[in-house]
């Protein structure tokens, strides 16, 4: 006769403390969200003449008159905030950090804001069968100075063989000083009680120069190196504990 009941639970061997720490770390890593890429897009236009009527948009002073211009817009945003088309020829990002720099006849105007950035590439074929591409970079934000909504767009129309930007979310650098169309627009709006927008000021002009640069920052290799070193230390400690036991 068997003196021991058959339904007793089997004894469980506890996992060594170091291995428990390793397992906990791996579980935490498995549940952690993937590290997002950080995109930085810089778009620059410059020209000899542009028309401005922008009272109160920039904190430094009102901008009025016809003047030479040099406009740089930098947008920094997280890939987790990006909505894009399947071919990446259109994208929109929210909660972007925006830096605007506008130099007019030696006077510098700057503005920092948080808003939305969008980019898109369009292709058209004219009557002769020639394909032309258009690139647009647009930002929109609450100016917090005067008005309720401001938008800045910079654009360039180019022949397909001159277009160096394959998609709006791939690292690229482009520079164009050819005579094809390029330019910018700035609009500042006030929201009205009937949900319409009233134009408070604008600035528009054609550019002789267009520059575009997109860079992507990925997690640094040191981050992964530190993680690997930590796992190796935990595994070594577990082996030592097992031999000692």
TrEMBL record:
Keyword GTP-binding: no
Keywords linked to the UniProt accession: Signal
Start and end residues of each Ice-binding protein C-terminal domain: 217-241
Leader sequence segment: 1-36
Pfam families, alphabetized: PEP-CTERM
Top-level lineage group: Bacteria
Protein name: Ice-binding protein C-terminal domain-containing protein
Bilayer-spanning residue ranges: none
Disulfide bond among keywords: no
Alphabetical list of InterPro entries matching this protein: Ice-binding_C
């Amino acid at each position: 006769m068997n003196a021991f009941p058959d339904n007793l639970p089997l004894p469980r061997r506890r996992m060594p403390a170091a291995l428990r720490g390793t397992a906990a770390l791996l579980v935490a890593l498995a549940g952690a969200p993937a590290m997002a890429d950080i995109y930085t897009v810089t778009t620059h236009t410059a020209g000899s003449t542009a028309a401005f009527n922008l009272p109160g948009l920039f904190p430094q002073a009102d901008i009025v008159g016809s003047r030479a211009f040099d406009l740089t817009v930098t947008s920094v945003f997280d890939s987790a905030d990006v909505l894009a088309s399947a071919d990446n020829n259109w994208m929109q990002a929210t909660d972007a950090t925006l830096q605007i720099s506008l130099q007019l006849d030696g006077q510098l105007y700057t503005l920092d804001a948080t808003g939305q950035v969008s980019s898109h590439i369009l292709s058209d074929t004219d009557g002769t069968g020639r394909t032309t591409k258009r690139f647009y970079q647009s930002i929109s934000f609450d100016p917090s100075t005067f008005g309720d909504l401001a938008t800045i767009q910079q654009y360039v129309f180019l022949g397909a063989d001159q277009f160096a930007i394959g998609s709006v979310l791939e690292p690229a650098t482009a520079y164009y000083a050819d005579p094809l169309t390029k330019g910018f627009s700035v609009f500042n709006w006030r929201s009205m009680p009937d949900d319409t927008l009233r134009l408070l000021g604008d600035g528009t002009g054609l550019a002789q120069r267009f520059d575009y640069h997109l860079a992507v920052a990925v997690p640094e290799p040191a981050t992964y190196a530190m993680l690997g070193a930590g796992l190796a230390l935990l595994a070594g400690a577990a082996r030592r504990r097992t031999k000692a036991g």
